[in-house]
Amino acid sequence: MTGGRLPGGATGGGIGAERRGLFGVRGSGDTSGYGRLVRRVPAPPAARRPYGRWFDDAADALAAGLEHVGGAFDDAVEAVTTVFDELTLYVRRDHLPLVAQLLRDDPALRFELCLGVSGVHHPEQAGRELHAVYHLLSITLGRRVRLEVEAPDSDPHVPTLTGVYPTTDWHERETYDFFGLIFDGHPALTRIEMPDDWEGYPQRKDYPLGGIPVEYHGAQIPPPESRRSYN
Questions:
Q1: Reported pTM
Q2: Which among 54, 97, 114, 184 is placed 20 to 30 Å from 163, CA to CA?
Q3: Angle 194-196-202 (CA atoms, 0-180°, nearest 5)?
Q4: Closest CA to 77 of 87, 64, 92
Q5: 67 or 43, which is more confident?
Q6: Cα separation of 93 and 103, whole Å?
Q7: E strand or H helix at 175, and its extent?
Q8: Long-range contacts at 30-34 (CB < 8 A, ≥ 24 apart)
């Protein structure tokens, strides 16, 4: 039970991606002032046993729970990382609800609370561009674990966790609104921040940097990228 290859094909440290500009946006005017910034982002190393701290006990408890229902740890979890002494489980999306329920209900785990859902867009990871990251907290044991699940742009579907953690209701809606991830089974997956007729998902890396005209006291103020050249 090693966790295997990291999602995206990485097996260890090294350069995970090269990002340009402040937000990684390409093909539009850069109004941030950081257009020539180049950052090389390292890929986190895949963890191997022993993980250290309480991580091995948690992995063993999860593996036992999966085996009890006829599953296997390596089938459900693609990889494990322990970067910055934080435990992250890269979960295959079809196994996400089961893994979350075991983490919540197993007496040895007891991750009773989901603190939120974060969306991430990695356009350089072909076939795994969209990520949903769930942050779980064990109030009883004072532990945290992160679940990360991925989906391609062409099939941006992830099972909802509202049946396991009702608090994810609003967080999944926000992630859908900004990143376009579709949480299958969500009771009311509608936009929560942007207008209902808004086109696109503003926090994706390929979303144009710019704006829309703003009307203020009868005057119309043009968006930043149309006021001057930022090439």
A1: 0.81
A2: 54
A3: 35
A4: 92
A5: 67
A6: 15
A7: helix 168-179
A8: 30/209, 30/230, 31/209, 31/210, 31/224, 31/225, 31/230, 32/209
Neighbours of 2 (CB within 10 A): 12
- Tell me if 117 sits within 8 A of 132, measured CB to CB: yes
**How many residues would you count in the chain?**
231
Comparison of pLDDT for 184 and 11, the residue scoring more: 184
52-56 contact pairs (CB < 8 A, 24+): 52/82, 53/85, 54/141, 54/143, 55/80, 55/82, 55/87
- Tokens 């910034």: give the residue: 37
The distance in angstroms from the start CA to the end CA of the chain is: 50
Could you tell me which residues come within 8 angstroms of residue 187 by beta carbon, excluding any fewer than 6 positions away? Answer: 162, 169
Mean pLDDT of 216-231: 70
Distance CA(106)–CA(20), nearest Å, equals 44
